[in-house]
Amino acid sequence: MSDFFGDDFTAELKAYFLDSVTKEIDKFIDLTDEKLWRRILSEVSEQTRAWAVDAKTNEFLHLAAWLEGFDEKSRNLEGAAELIKALKTLKGYVEALGVEKADSADLATRFALNAQNLREILLLHCRFGSQEFAVPILSVIEISGRLPLYDLPEKKEGLLGVIPFRGEAVPVVNLQDHGFARMDADNFFYVICEEQGVRFSLQVTHTDDMISLKEADLQNFENQSSMMSANFVHQFFIKDRRSIMVLDLEKLVA
């Protein structure tokens, strides 16, 4: 067989497939609203069957099974918001495949889709010293151990520097610039995230278990003058009588 079909070419085909699926999902998300969501759902269902065939061709067998079952999984969707959440779940799965370069049962389980989890929010509970916050698990790529932190050539507000991660220099958000209390510690590690195609990391001192919440459990910061103010923190929830902030990573990236 010609080298034209060697490993590099196969990897390029797989990357092209994942990139094209991601772009199509974004188009569906942009079009979805309360008036059009049922029509969009029908179009998505038809498209997922075509994607399933291509997923098998590209050896993403668990993704293919996910896509083949979309019709059944989506029967109980109730409105545009749940369809958008389902599409974002699929997008998260596809983007994770782009990072991992291989499909797996564990990855498919992480992005499992059912009516119940579309009405719930899955969060990773983190600590920065005594301060607690949570981030959407779908945006988390990996929880990394201690890594060297390198300064930026020029100081930029909101960033501490960069860390090496899988051959990339990933920026580290400076939580103190966003209202978190200053903390002197050496034992930091990192939550690597990706949102809207932008990869970044959060410096933490500890991560706890994942937390599953109903959207009704989230409270807005309005009239909560005692709580920290940051442009990407608008909601919180109560756990064991403690208030835990939820980071809005879309606004953080913006």
UniProtKB/TrEMBL annotation:
> Lineage, please?
Bacteria, Pseudomonadati, Bdellovibrionota, Bdellovibrionia, Bdellovibrionales
Name its species.
Bdellovibrio bacteriovorus (strain ATCC 15356 / DSM 50701 / NCIMB 9529 / HD100)
**Any one GO cellular component localisation term in the record:** cytosol
One GO BP annotation here?
Answer: signal transduction
Source organism superkingdom: Bacteria
Q: What is the designated name of this protein?
A: Chemotaxis protein
Q: Which residues form the CheW-like domain?
A: 120-254
Q: Which Pfam families match?
A: CheW
The record, for InterPro entries, names: CheW, CheW-like_dom_sf, CheW-lke_dom
